[in-house]
Amino acid sequence: MASSKSGKRASLPRSNSDNNEGILTRVSTAVSQSPIVNTTKQAASDAGYITKRLLKSTGKAAWIVGTTFLILVVPLIIEMDREQQLNELDLQQASLLGTPPSAIAPQK
Question: Which domain of life is it from (predicted)?
């Protein structure tokens, strides 16, 4: 066996990094710093932001529509139902009194 002059053993060359990274770690780091990955991450972040804003706006719009319906439409429906009940009551009374139903004038 031949020995070197300095008395040191020969060894394989080490990588330039000081830490003991494996090949998978180095590849993973290189891929995560890729412009394509960064662009995809930015697009996903933007999509999440837009979705959040859209849901918030949709919730506000649903609240406005719901309260408007309760304030304006429900009383109208109740009043129309009362009017219908009064008309039916008038028809019942007219039939009991013997007045023909066509002679009853609608109320305004």
Answer: Eukaryota
Q: What is the C-alpha separation between 42 and 62, in angstroms, rounded? A: 30
Distance CA 88, CA 106 (A): 11
The model carries a pTM of 0.42
Phi/psi at 14 (nearest 5 deg)?
-90, 160
Does the pLDDT value for residue 29 go beyond 80? no
Supply the pLDDT for residue 82: 97
Pick from 28, 27, 26: nearest CA to 16:
26
**Stretch 19-44: mean pLDDT, rounded?**
78
